[in-house]
């Protein structure tokens, strides 16, 4: 839907409306189908491509695709190695690679021109509303962060045992005196609750802000030729800067995932 057909508030509101599907009789359980479908398709395409490269890998001189994937794997593995000193190849390094690549490509959907994609979804797919950036949906980022949080609790119990983990909740970091058990428990609960919140909101906030800026620049096209040229130039400038944000946010999300799970293997 073109910017000139709508007021600024209607234009932004149209592009920020999810394609929702109510579960059952409606009410609380509502699925954002655009977030779910886009995330799933990106996962299948990206990891299918990586799997195809890996299965075709040779021990000789690598081609450009294989060399790129090897550089990516070595980069992620090096980051994990600097933080986690256990058997990182058993789980953590593959998890970090999965998180980095998937979040990166979900972030990168922000580079698609919003009006062109809106036209495609409306006229080709028959969908009036469809948001292309899964990580600009708080439900997606919180689901990712919550998955990492559950893995962190799992490894806490696996490494320390259920009794050891509960003991740590009540006896760290201020000591094992029963009088300070409530303070220890409250301190640990704040830490446990803040991790998924900060993990998810950091990614969501940056990607949502980037989406809003692209929409604001897109509205300049409704002000005539001068606005179209200025909007295009500023859009290109913001897009170049946004490349850093897309990569950096994927990297930060991956590193926090590694840090949280590595901390689960350590005792206070």
How is this structure best summarized?
Helix content is 71%, strand content 2%. It has 268 residues and is mainly alpha-helical.
Notes on the protein architecture:
About 25% of the residues are buried. The protein has one domain (about 15-265). A hairpin with a 7-residue loop joins strand 1 (about 20) and strand 2 (about 30). Strands 1-2 form a two-stranded antiparallel sheet. The longest helix is centred in the last third of the chain and has 40 residues, at about 225-265. By secondary structure, it is mainly alpha-helical. It starts with 7 loop residues before the first helix and ends with a helix. Helix 6 (about 140-170) runs antiparallel to helix 7 (about 180-220). The chain is globular, with a radius of gyration of 22 Å. The protein contains eight helices and two strands, in the order H-E-E-H-H-H-H-H-H-H.
């Amino acid at each position: 839907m073109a910017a000139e057909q709508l007021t600024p508030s209607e234009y932004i509101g149209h592009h920020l409306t999810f394609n929702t599907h109510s579960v059952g009789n409606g009410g609380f359980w509502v699925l954002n189908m655009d977030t779910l479908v886009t995330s799933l398709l990106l996962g299948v395409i990206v990891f299918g491509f990586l799997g195809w490269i890996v299965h075709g890998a040779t021990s000789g001189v690598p081609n450009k695709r294989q060399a790129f994937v090897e550089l990516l794997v070595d980069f992620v593995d090096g980051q994990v190695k600097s933080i986690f000193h256990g058997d990182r190849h058993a789980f953590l390094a593959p998890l970090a690679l999965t998180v980095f690549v998937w979040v990166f490509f979900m972030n990168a959907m922000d580079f698609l021109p919003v009006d062109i994609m809106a036209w495609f979804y409306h006229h080709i797919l028959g969908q009036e509303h469809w948001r292309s950036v899964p990580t600009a949906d708080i439900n997606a980022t919180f689901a990712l962060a919550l998955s990492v949080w559950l893995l962190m609790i799992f490894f806490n119990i696996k490494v320390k045992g259920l009794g050891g983990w509960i003991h740590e909740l009540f006896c760290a970091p201020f000591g094992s005196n029963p009088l300070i058990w409530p303070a220890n428990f409250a301190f640990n609960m704040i830490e446990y609750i803040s991790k998924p919140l900060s993990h998810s909101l950091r990614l969501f906030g940056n990607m949502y802000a980037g989406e809003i800026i692209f929409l604001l620049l897109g509205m300049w096209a409704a002000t005539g030729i001068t606005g179209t040229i200025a909007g295009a130039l500023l859009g290109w400038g913001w897009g170049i800067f946004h490349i850093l944000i897309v990569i950096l946010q994927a990297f930060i999300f991956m590193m926090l995932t590694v840090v949280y799970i590595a901390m689960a293997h350590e005792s206070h």
